Amino acid sequence: MTSALAKIEDFPSDPVEFFKQILQAAAEGHPEGFMQEMNLATVDEEFGVLNRTVLYRGLTADNFVFYITHRYTRNFKNLQANPKACITFYMPDVKDQAGKDTTWQVRLIGATAVELPQDEMDGLWAKENLASQIRGHICPCGEPINYDDLKAKHDKFLQEHSGKSIERPASYTAWQFQPQRWDFLKVGLNEIADRVQYRLQSNGKWESMHIAT
Ligand SMILES: Cc1cc2nc3c(=O)[nH]c(=O)nc-3n(C[C@H](O)[C@H](O)[C@H](O)COP(=O)(O)O)c2cc1C
To answer: What Enzyme Commission number(s) apply to this enzyme (predicted)?
Structure first.
């Protein structure tokens, strides 16, 4: 049995730069294409708190994490009613500089959701894959469905739109998140994790510090 204390070294003063570095290292083992998911927790009137997995779509021009959804989902309605959210990224196979496997957790704490401007939606819609575009038109998210009915609807939609572009539904939208804190946790096998937390100061600058796990 062995034990060690993980150490996060040489982290940049800007948390977004740090996040980009870790994301890049996480993507390195996946040259065939890399998708990063994130867990989004929102305040829900019925359940108190509600979380789900969503796809990380990148950073906005202002360096805010964003994801895409539809206005008919509960995640959209939750954020509309209460924009406070928390996001967790889990990156289990990131090689450090010495080639050792490490796991990272990155959290956006006290994040405020702000909807992306609608004039950015056409560009994002054009990059969606066909299944996502069809889903946006035929799925009553969260409602009970009959598989055969939905399949018939899907197949009809697919056939009718063969070779044609699919119109962006008005429900299609995206949220960006402005966090109060970024929390980075690093751990390896048989190690006690290290954490670095960035806290937004009232002057708009980030203060960073190691935090006990
Ligand atoms: C890998 C993965 C990626 C997903 N990406 C998204 C996404 O980007 N946007 C989204 O609205 N739902 C996404 N979902 C579906 C959500 O997890 C969730 O089921 C759906 O949004 C309805 O959740 P709600 O009732 O909390 O709104 C994804 C699910 C998985 C498993």
So the answer is: 1.4.3.5
With a 6 Å cutoff on the Cβ, whether 197 touches ligand 1 is no
Q: Report d(CA 9, CA 181) in Å as an integer.
A: 19
Spatial contact of 175 and 69, defined as CB atoms under 8 Å apart: yes
Q: Which atom of ligand 1 is nearest to the CA of 67?
A: 8
Residue 29 has pLDDT above 80, yes or no: no
To test the ligand 1 pocket, which listed residue (73, 78, 132) has its Cβ within 8 A of the most ligand atoms? 73
- Strands 4-5 vs 191-192: parallel, antiparallel or unpaired: parallel
Residue 141: CB within 6 Å of ligand 1?
Answer: yes
Q: pLDDT at position 140, please?
A: 81
pLDDT at 93 exceeding the cut of 90 = no
Atom number, ligand 1, closest to the C-alpha of residue 57: 8
Q: Euclidean distance between the first and final Cα of the chain, in Å?
A: 21
Ligand 1, atom 4: nearest CA belongs to which residue? 54
Taking residues 187-212, report their average pLDDT.
96
pLDDT tens, residue by residue, 38-86? 999 999 999 999 999 999 999 999 999 999 999 999 999 999 999 999 9
Contact status, residue 211 vs residue 186, Cβ threshold 8 Å: no
